[in-house]
Amino acid sequence: MLQLDRVSLSYGSFRALDNISLHAGAGELVVLLGANGAGKSSIFLAMSGIHRISGGSMRFDGRELSGMKPSQIVQAGLVHCPEGRKLFPAMSVEKNLTLGAYVHRRDRAGIRKTLEEVYEMFPILFQKKDDPAGSLSGGQQQMVALGRALMSRPRALLLDEPSLGLAPLVVKQMFEIIQRINRAGTTVLLAEQNAYAALGIAHRAYVIENGHIVMEGDRDTLLKDEGIRKAYIGG
């Protein structure tokens, strides 16, 4: 479903991605592991049409992504939930959520149905639907960000560091929700520094360092790898 073939991306003279190749099949949950600055976010920004690549090919469901507008990519079913949540803090929770359904704005009944599904997944957001998004806790704001992405009705979801800055209990809940979304049929590409939690729900993973993929494999292989454990898990 998702295929990157020898993708490169530069910011001025800095080469953020260097001949990156990876894939995620339909229904898979694939994790990108790496430290800050490794290139994980750059992959997502390229795939979502925010940054133009300097070489290679990116395909979603057989369709070339390069040159497509971000709105066209969302309409195709590939949706990006960015690092840092990127909410509108003064707007209500519900308005933040419904912004995610902009590409489906003519389907009012469908938007209402999807909103009900998001509230069922995150009951606390229904309780706070009229509150400013900026007044919520960090974990609740992450729920809004994920819910907003789900309002776009993704067939494939790019999740960038959803556990960043969250308490351990909230991280556990967030990963349970991500696994639930994947089991319902949505392909997930998950960028994470929390390797242990991410590998616990993944089918496969790639390890990225300095814009290069240095290792790939299924979750059991990477969890048992001594180098991966020392670098990303501990022990």
From TrEMBL:
Q: What is this protein called?
A: Branched-chain amino acid ABC transporter, ATP-binding component
Its taxonomic path starts at:
Bacteria, Pseudomonadati, Pseudomonadota, Betaproteobacteria, Burkholderiales
Looking at its record, which EC class is this enzyme? hydrolase
Q: PROSITE patterns per the record?
A: ABC_TRANSPORTER_1, ABC_TRANSPORTER_2
Q: Which biological process terms from the Gene Ontology are attached to this UniProt entry?
A: L-amino acid transport
Q: Does this entry carry the keyword Nucleotide-binding?
A: yes
Name the family: Belongs to the ABC transporter superfamily.
Keywords recorded for this protein, A-Z: Amino-acid transport, ATP-binding, Cell inner membrane, Cell membrane, Hydrolase, Membrane, Nucleotide-binding, Plasmid, Transport
- The residue ranges of the ABC transporter domain are 2-235
